[in-house]
Amino acid sequence: MNYSQILGTGGYLPSRELTNHQLATQIGSSHEWIVERTGIHSRRLAAPEEGTCDLALQAATQALQAANCPAEELDLIVLATTTPDMIYPSTACLLQARLGNQGAAAFDVQAVCSGFIYALTIADKFIKTGAAQRALVVGADTYSRLLDWEDRRTCVLFGDGAGACVLGPSDRPGILATRLHADGAHQHKLKVPGMVAAGQLQNGDGYTKMAGQEVFKFAVKALSEVVEEVLSAQHLPKESVDWLIPHQANLRIIEATAKKLKIPMEKVIVTLAQQGNTSAASIPLALNQAVRDGRIRPQQTLLLEAVGGGFTWGAVLMKY
Ligand SMILES: CC(C)(COP(=O)(O)OP(=O)(O)OC[C@H]1O[C@@H](n2cnc3c(N)ncnc32)[C@H](O)[C@@H]1OP(=O)(O)O)[C@@H](O)C(=O)NCCC(=O)NCCS
Fold it and tell me: What is the pLDDT of residues 277-294, one digit of tens each?
């Protein structure tokens, strides 16, 4: 066994839709402004009683079915989220109980919008070293709960959702190369500064603060560099990539990165128009959609990349 391989994928979006038209009038914006600057038309919002674990459960159940893997067989659960249902236990442990699994290692990863790339990289190492045989990797966020709905600079960008995949060992090529990076010097450019102490929220509020243009510039540079890193680690040319699956933050970031890499947009999976930025869920949701609609086929070369608060960023190069 030399590789970890994706055995099945799943995804879930809450049913409640919030269109630009519904949102724009409340915040002094317009559908046209939002589409032109972001490519987003609408987003899904979790129902008041729906938590991150509820979304994760739907996506995980679908991925386990696709992988033909009973939940009892999982020996690792890695869940990426910035919006856990509670401080602890981790959402991974809450999900484990809902799935009916006992004994698997289970933990959350907090790398904001790069969370799924971090989680997949960690699970890949467990499988490759033989420390796990069946890993569930989930990206799930109810990011809408971190938004100030009066701040038009941020509230138009995000939505809620969950995506998942099951990984197992394989002799044929699966995950080929991974790279993770972070630079905490950029912490003030994208953050939710609130924290809980003495039973109360401290450090201001629990809403997203963002320097949009700085995030934009950093994202395009960091993403194109990390993509080059994973490709050169495998001595593969860009032309060998069948599908680029970027974090779905902003269509202009996706287009600028693809242009810098000279990857045509026909080879880029884009889902953000109807979903917005679903944070850690965006890449597994895009992956799942393209697997289920037949665009992604076995042994095609996939390139996944993301950037998020921290800043954190990373890429995964794989054969599907
Ligand atoms: C957020 C973003 C779309 C804003 O676009 P921008 O071109 O940078 O716009 P600016 O923030 O410079 O604001 C320009 C003007 O548009 C206004 N504006 C901002 N949001 C608006 C909205 N939703 N509707 C209408 N006007 C808006 C601003 O108030 C500003 O007006 P002012 O000059 O009168 O103050 C863009 O910066 C972006 O996408 N950045 C990356 C964000 C991201 O991806 N974050 C997640 C990373 S994981």
Answer: 999 999 999 999 999 999
- The answer on 188 and 111 residing in a single domain is no
The separation between CA 192 and the C-alpha centre of its own chain, rounded to angstroms, equals 18
| Element of type H or E holding 22 | helix 20-27
In the chain, the amino acid numbered 36 is E
Separation of CA 140 and ligand 1 centre (Å): 25
Contact 283, 307 (CB under 8 A): no
Q: Are residues 73 and 203 in the same domain?
A: no
Give the pTM. Answer: 0.97
Pair (164, 298) in one structural domain: no
User: So which residues are the catalytic ones?
Assistant: 113, 247, 277
CB–CB of 188/86 below 8 Å? no
Judgement on whether residues 201 and 306 belong to the same structural domain of the protein: yes
**Tokens standing for residue 15:** 């049913």
User: Is any ligand 1 atom within 6 A of the Cβ of residue 212?
Assistant: yes
- CB–CB of 162/58 below 8 Å? yes
